[in-house]
Design a protein that fits this description.
- About 25% of the residues lie in helices and about 20% in strands.
- With about 280 residues, the chain is of the alpha+beta class.
- The chain has a domain of about 180 residues: Cysteine proteinases (Cathepsin B, Chain A, Alpha-Beta Complex), CATH 3.90.70.10.
- Strands 3, 5, 7, 8, 9, 10, 11 and 12 form an 8-stranded mixed sheet that branches. It has a two-stranded antiparallel ribbon with strand order 1-2.
- The radius of gyration is 19 Å and the shape is globular.
Length: about 280
């Protein structure tokens, strides 16, 4: 990444009716919009005029130099190069931003979960129970992005919620002021092996589809992405939805790749949304 995209804080979000974006999200929506327009124009015009290429704004201009053909993109699915760029932006840029501002101006990048529960615990329950490092400190801001990390040798399996509340993270005055915001899950990063390989589950919010991306730095040619099957996506959504409703969800019978949700460490990526926009 050569430069960071401008971040839009919650103060500006409150003063705007349009959606706010962090990095690649705006590219996704602009691409979808322009592809739709190009398809419509193509039906009305002859093939003698070549359709214009989608405008690349946001941080994709500075993404890793991986070549790709725009024709590979579809409205329904994201291809491997695009998911590679999304993954790269998260781990090379988002992982370096200190999103969390605590008392005494202490700043952190990750919220690290910590619990002695020998079993499963939804992330929201962990937050409500203050089962995280720095549990005695309170945030002075609503983070644009919340990176939730599990400990390497935790005996607790933390399962995702589709949406999370910031109530138990914020100072009271901030909580009252920012009550219209919540976190929305967009990605889950799991460790594959000791050689640094990782797997990312990524949710394309505009299409409500879950994708999977394999990052294998030792074999770059084996980078691979796909859309989760209907059954896998249904299982993943079911786990998160059951957790949102407060019901226990047993994941012991999950098969690969969803079984990686029971391993450590895992990083859950949440972005801040106005409640009216997220639901």
């Amino acid at each position: 990444m050569q430069s960071r995209p401008d971040l839009i804080g919650t103060d500006e979000m409150r003063g705007q009716q349009k959606r706010s974006y962090i990095g690649f999200e705006k590219f996704e929506e602009e691409y979808n919009h322009e592809t739709s327009m190009n398809n419509a124009a193509g039906n009305a015009k002859s093939n003698s005029t070549s359709p214009r290429q989608p405008t690349r704004t946001s941080s994709f201009q500075n993404s890793p130099s991986r070549s790709y053909d725009d024709s590979q993109f579809t409205l329904q699915h994201l291809c491997t190069p695009m998911l590679s760029s999304i993954y790269s932006e998260i781990v090379t840029f988002w992982f370096k931003v200190q999103w969390l501002i605590y008392d005494d101006n202490v700043r952190e990048t990750f919220l690290v979960l910590k619990s002695n529960v020998d079993g499963y615990l939804p992330i929201q329950t962990a937050l409500d129970q203050k089962s995280f490092v720095n549990s005695k400190s309170r945030l002075h801001n609503v983070p644009e992005c919340l990176l939730i990390q599990t400990e390497f040798h935790s005996k607790t399996t933390f399962l995702p919620n589709l949406f999370i509340s910031f109530d138990h993270l914020l100072h009271k005055n901030i909580r009252l002021k920012e009550s219209s915001f919540q976190g929305q899950l967009i990605a889950i990063l799991c460790k594959l092996n000791e050689r640094g390989s990782k797997l990312m589950f990524y949710k394309h919010l505009q299409r409500n589809t879950w994708h999977i991306y394999f990052n294998t730095p030792e074999f770059p040619s084996e980078y691979y992405a796909n859309v989760l099957s209907d059954d896998e996506a249904s299982q993943l959504e079911s786990i998160a939805e059951e957790n949102d409703s407060g019901n226990f969800n047993d994941v012991r019978r999950l098969e690969y790749p969803l079984s990686l949700l029971t391993t450590h460490p895992i990083i859950y990526v949440y972005i801040t949304r106005k409640i009216s926009d997220a639901n």
